[in-house]
Amino acid sequence: MSGRDNDFVVVANRLPVDLNTAPDGTRTWSASPGGLVAALSPVLRTQQGCWVGWPGVPDAAPDPFYTDDGILLHPVRLNQADYEGFYEGFSNATLWPLYHDLIVPPVYNLDWWYAYREVNLRFADEVAEVAAEGATVWVQDYQLQLLPGILRQKRPDLTIGFFLHIPFPSADLYSQLPWRDELVRGLLGADVIGFHLESNARNFLDLARRLELPVSGEVSTRKITAHIETPDGRSVGVGAFPISIEVDEFTDFDDAALAGVDKLRADLGTPKHVILGVDRLDYTKGILQRLLAFEELLETGALDPAEVTLVQIATPSRERIEHYKKTRSQVEEAVGRINGSFSQLGKPVVHYQHRSIDKKVLRLLYRLADIMLVTPFKDGMNLVAKEYAACHDDAKGALVLSEFAGAADELPEANLCNPFDIESVKRSLLTAIKGLEDQPEVMAERMRIMHEQVMTHDVKLWSRAFLDSLKEAKRK
Ligand code: GDG
């Protein structure tokens, strides 16, 4: 089924599926949540492409198959050792913290590096098997930074794009990495390298200059105006392509949906202010800090527990990694403590769910929330902030947003905060609540601008801009 006949191939660490095992042992695959999946499914649907990726479970891989939407999924099998070394180790305990500015210390482990290299080689074999002569291959994210270089050697006929979904750190930080030269060489195998923000792209160009590679032009957004010359005489385009969301999923609230929103508010005990957080349970997302800010506001009486409710959805993520375990226990301890101090029977002041919720419910929650709290210490973009703005064609609500989320570049009308400074989080939250009470027309105008920004800069624009740039690179 997946012969060498696919003209457009997306390669990502994960296939957009989860493996579910029923009590009788029956195994089925279902669509899975996550930023990457949300962003790429629409692109593949419209382009009839093939997606190469790991199904998400060690030692399990179905045969290649078509989804209901007609997307060909080509699984790459990882065994338990790959999972530990490549995925949990090098990708998520080395690169993830390094690229998020050392919120926790990265671990540098030679065996993990070998596993990372080995798995990137395996992905290259799979792509080479499914990609047609002259095909376009779009490689996604930090788990596969060696792939463009390997593919370039294996299949010089391919046009290769690479997009990084997480921040790219300053050259100083990046230079900690013992295998920094190998990774840069891997990335430079691409024809176009895309980042969310111009600042990320500039960090990469700085690094190239340090390596004494010729750099020309200045970085811009949604087009390629900066280039790096490689030692083998190629020109690699570098640019910023801020990712976004499929807006249709978050608009069009009909009467039934609005009734669902009312019911949810009633289920929560009809609080005056509903505050919402939605994140993977990751230490970069600042969930604990926002809980502490909320707790201090309750303690000082600035917020009345009879009037506010905080709903925190914390989707399970990378649960075996030490720092994730620690974050979970700190978050859950804080939730317990806050509820212990401030809830009334049958009326918790914090509603916490450590499981993924249905997208339809998520949409209702966004619409319901008076205040959305998005407080990462560092985030490539943050789609949750954009999803919230998309849900508010009613111009209601307020977004408290970290300055260190990529989304802050496009949503300056949010109530911005510095998550490293708990006073700043408290201030932004109170200002948002007060703004909604005292200056509803000002807040409504700010929400209208944010909503419009997201509606006019959706994921289709993101993919079109990137793929157009790649086409242009191929033409040259
Ligand atoms: C990485 C970068 C960048 C969350 N909980 C549930 C659920 N979600 C969905 C949200 C959103 C997605 O997951 C999370 O995306 P984010 O962008 O917020 O964050 P990461 O997962 O860290 O994504 C990030 C992104 O890649 C894309 O480039 O923006 O900076 O870190 O779409 O809605 N969806 C459902 N139930 C949940 O409980 N259905």
TrEMBL record:
InterPro entries: Glyco_trans_20. This is alpha,alpha-trehalose-phosphate synthase (ADP-forming). PANTHER family: BCDNA.GH08860, TREHALOSE-6-PHOSPHATE SYNTHASE. GO terms for cellular component: cytosol. Its EC number is 2.4.1.347. CDD domains: GT20_TPS. Belongs to the glycosyltransferase 20 family. GO terms for molecular function: alpha,alpha-trehalose-phosphate synthase (UDP-forming) activity; trehalose-phosphatase activity. It catalyses: TDP-alpha-D-glucose + D-glucose 6-phosphate = 5-methyl-UDP + alpha,alpha-trehalose 6-phosphate + H(+); CDP-alpha-D-glucose + D-glucose 6-phosphate = alpha,alpha-trehalose 6-phosphate + CDP + H(+); ADP-alpha-D-glucose + D-glucose 6-phosphate = alpha,alpha-trehalose 6-phosphate + ADP + H(+); GDP-alpha-D-glucose + D-glucose 6-phosphate = alpha,alpha-trehalose 6-phosphate + GDP + H(+). GO terms for biological process: trehalose biosynthetic process.
